Structures are given as structure tokens and as C-alpha cells.
Amino acid sequence: MAKKQRIDKILSNLGYGSRTEIKKYCKNGLVVVNGATISNPGQQVDHESDEIYFEGKKVVYREFVYLMMNKPGGYISATTDKYDPVVIDLIDPSYLIFEPFPVGRLDKDTEGLLVLTNDGQLSHRVLSPKKHVPKTYYAKVSGVVGEDDIKAFKEGVVLDDGYKTMPSELVIIKSDDESEIELTIHEGKFHQVKRMFESVGKEVVYLKRLSMGNLKLDESLELGEYRELTDEEVLLIEERN
Questions:
Q1: What is the C-alpha separation between 45 and 6, in angstroms, rounded?
Q2: Phi, psi (degrees; rounded to nearest 5) at 180
Q3: Whole-structure pTM over 0.85, yes or no?
Q4: What is the annotated signal peptide range for this record (predicted)?
Q5: Most buried residue among 1, 88, 110, 121 by CB atoms closer than 10 A?
Q6: For residue 215, how many other CB atoms are within 10 A of its CB?
């Protein structure tokens, strides 16, 4: 059974206004619970079993929000930054009341799949080193990528700080002076994909995340666009093939 909460707390948490504003709305008869007009903003309500209406429209309560964004370059994967725009700047204010944050980071110049949520437990599970949630990237690489690189990445490469990466799966789409690849990694070290290619003498010139777990980027989303995840898609974030 859901724990009862004050009606002003429920409505303010959902972005209907401040506690002071909700108090005025109650006095003006705009809040109705189970068919009865609520004048007391401190009245205890069960958001799961009680029917709440505000200005004649049913209030749908939810604790968490889950968003999929096609992150554009030039934005920091953070909620605030002193110098650069952040991905939260792209989110509609109606979602900001939930205080969403990025699940993990994409570099400033990296594009693609970014999940934002206020579900801290989900974020912790996805980012936990013990989980090894796979992430697949598409990259353009300066230099010819070949079988030796596939073998090296499969065995794990040593980064500039001496860390040896877990085995990863490198697929070559095009091998040329500028190669195109897809790479699946199972950890999330700082600038990992770029540093992996640096370890084999090559440079990543474009990077885009395609998937996290079994959740794939919705390619219909333009850069900077986002949408809510379905319940099924939320489960896919933690799944591994």
C-alpha cells in the first residue's frame, strides 16, 4: 500500500506549483479527491488508490521519469556546468521538476544514446563495474583499422595509465585511411573508446553511442531530441545478450 502524503506535496512534486500556490488552488476549489473538493492543502492522500483531479483533469502520479536523448555534440553530460551548455538545457521544464540526470557520461563532442532519469538505483546498477553492462559505439577512426586491432581489442588493450581493458568486440564497417567501426565495450573508463584506439596508434575523429544494454538509440530522434522510454525499454537498459 502506498504511503499517504499531503496533497500539496504530491501536487508540488508533480510540478503543479509551489506549496504556497497549491494552498491557493485548494482555497479556490481547483483540487478534487474522490469526488470531493479539497480545501485543506495538508490533507493526506494516497496517490495510488485515490483519484485526484486538478482543474478538472486527472492527476497521474509517478515517482520516476526515464528519457532517451540523441545527444548532440557540444553539450556536457551533466546537470550544471560553469562554462558549457549541458544536456539538461535541452529538456522541457515539465520534466525538470523530476530533477533528471544523465546515466553515465558521453564526452562533450560525442553524440548518440543518453539516458536521463531520476531513478538513482537504476543508474547505480547500470554504472556498477560489477554489472558490465555493454555499450556499443559507432566511430570514424583516422587510420586503417584491421584484423590486428580486432585481435588486440578482443584480448584487451593497455591504456595510457597502465589499465588493461576488458575484452571488447570490434567490427570493421570500412577499413581505409579513415575507417568506420562499431565497438562494444563492457566497462566505462574515462574517454575509453578514444584511449583504446590511441593505444593502437589511431585517432577517433567521430563517436556516437548506439546502445546501452539491449536499449538501442531511436534513430528517428534528431540530434538534441528526446522522448520518454516505454516500460519495456527501461528493462532493456540493464539486459545483456
A1: 6
A2: -125, 135
A3: no
A4: none
A5: 110
A6: 23
- 163 close to 192: Cβ distance less than 8 angstroms: no
All cell numbers assigned to 189:
573508463
Cell of 59: 492527476
Instruction: Give the residue numbers marked as catalytic.
Output: 107
Query: Could you give the dihedral angle defined by the CA atoms of residues 203, 204, 205 and 210, in that order, rounded to the nearest 10 degrees?
Result: 170
Nearest-Å Rg of the Cα atoms of the chain is 23
pLDDT values of the chain reduced to their tens digit, one per residue, 241 residues: 457 889 998 898 787 888 899 999 999 999 999 999 999 999 999 888 899 999 999 888 888 999 999 999 999 999 999 999 999 999 988 788 788 999 999 999 999 999 999 999 999 999 988 889 999 999 999 999 999 999 999 999 999 999 999 999 999 999 999 999 999 999 988 899 999 999 999 999 999 999 999 999 999 999 999 999 999 999 999 887 6
Residue 153 neighbours by CB under 8 Å, 6+ apart: 165, 167, 168, 169, 170, 183, 196
